[in-house]
Amino acid sequence: MSNECPIGFIDSGVGGLTVVKEAMRQLPNENILYVGDTARCPYGPRPAEQVIEFTRQMTQFLIKKGIKMLVIACNTATAVALEEIRKTVSIPVIGVIQPGARSALKASTAGEIAVIGTTGTIKSGSYERELHRKAPEVTVYSLACPKFATVVESNQYKSAVAKKVVAETLKPLLLDKPDTLILGCTHYPLLRPIIQNVMGKDTVLIDSGAETVNDVSTMLDYFDLNNFERNEKKTCRFYTTGSPKMFQEIASEWLSFTTLQVEHIHLGGE
Amino acid sequence: MSNECPIGFIDSGVGGLTVVKEAMRQLPNENILYVGDTARCPYGPRPAEQVIEFTRQMTQFLIKKGIKMLVIACNTATAVALEEIRKTVSIPVIGVIQPGARSALKASTAGEIAVIGTTGTIKSGSYERELHRKAPEVTVYSLACPKFATVVESNQYKSAVAKKVVAETLKPLLLDKPDTLILGCTHYPLLRPIIQNVMGKDTVLIDSGAETVNDVSTMLDYFDLNNFERNEKKTCRFYTTGSPKMFQEIASEWLSFTTLQVEHIHLGGE
């Protein structure tokens, strides 16, 4: 395994790009490969077995491309497939839930923590379990926001529709008055300004994906996997099972890239 | 290896207590064993081979006590012995230099980073190398502060002597005007108010030890080693090769503990 090998990122769609953006900022030397399973997004409502199978397919695709580390940049997939994937590959595998939960516990002043995510993530109880294992005394409010990922994937995350959907969905949380809110889906940071506006400025938003990059950085140090080569031809490649055009539109804007290599791929029977 | 096993911390003296303090805050469930090699402190002026040997002795002492993870809470020992110790034990071993360097790179706005440490740490060039490998463009100013650790070990860290020593030693750095200063010795956070006063409020101080606890937390998650048992009889034991009385005085004040178990031990031929 060479240090110049890329880090792999996988997500159900474009959400994991919020993790990639932070990775590009914190780890400018690293080569990056990304798979967004847009054709089968959202993962949220799917049964766990299916999410595990799809995650395994993305992982295998990237392993064949020679990645040195894998980031499951998707909360739904982390919730149900992280353990399974760790068992089957020999490279370090990092999920987004533990970093998000850890960061929320550090940030919370009143111990009133809310988590929003897909139906799959919320139903798995992963955040709640993780938070309570470490801090049984905190109160955790969990809310599934099934429409959010779809709004982002259809490139409507700045629209009036987005504002309406976010305001209506988060209404129950306003009564709970959490001091900290975990964005427990990597799609949600694209909705961040709207979410912050609805929750009010006193609620600290935790971007689980961005927090994950701290773990990636720690792991690169620990396993001595950093890429110290400054290469003008740095690799940053994106693969999608859906429309490369739509993916490119969202990714270019979000990552502020004028040109972006996006390639269509087939995974399994999709 | 059980999750209830303690985490081991080793240092040349009381400096590592600054790491323990942060660990107690962030990881309240964890049992802690600490060795301070006060009798042979400071490590700074000693040859590398000797520091490696002393570090190995402390490590073996704690391995026999059944620790699940080792934190080399000493910059001098991390600089010269981390790789060696990692090779010889089967538990995860974490040093303080990579977390400190990583955090400084995140914090620095102007890329003007200063590092202060013992003669041994500065002579090893560890921080400079680590910073430049990741960010060749930053300017690094390194300054050995051979008297600082001794001032702390003799419990004079709030005295007029401390103020004078710090002001005189740091004088050359004032001309360099670093935007970020790494406290590259775990003793230095006890001198933090004085150091901040000398450097001015615009210089961001990085406590490499406290940053290390983030790595400890990440590693506990990654290796599934967290202790989730809430135990009223939590273990927190301190061993020193020097005077338990002096150790207890400094530790009790620094950690705000009224009672503290400190035991005298012999290591090697000291």
TrEMBL record, chains A, B:
Any one GO BP annotation for this protein: cell wall organization
Lineage: Bacteria, Bacillati, Bacillota, Bacilli, Lactobacillales
Pathway connected to this protein: Cell wall biogenesis; peptidoglycan biosynthesis
Keyword flag Magnesium: no
UniProt keyword terms in alphabetical order: Cell shape, Cell wall biogenesis/degradation, Isomerase, Peptidoglycan synthesis
EC code: 5.1.1.3
PANTHER family in the cross-refs: GLUTAMATE RACEMASE
Binding site for substrate: D11, S12, Y43, G44, N75, T76, T186, H187
Role this protein plays: Provides the (R)-glutamate required for cell wall biosynthesis.
Organism of provenance: Enterococcus florum
A Pfam family it matches: Asp_Glu_race
Reaction(s) catalysed by this chain's protein: L-glutamate = D-glutamate
Catalytic residues as annotated in Swiss-Prot or TrEMBL: C74, C185
Matches recorded under NCBIfam families: glut_race, PRK00865.1-3
GO MF annotations, alphabetized: glutamate racemase activity; identical protein binding
Protein name: Glutamate racemase
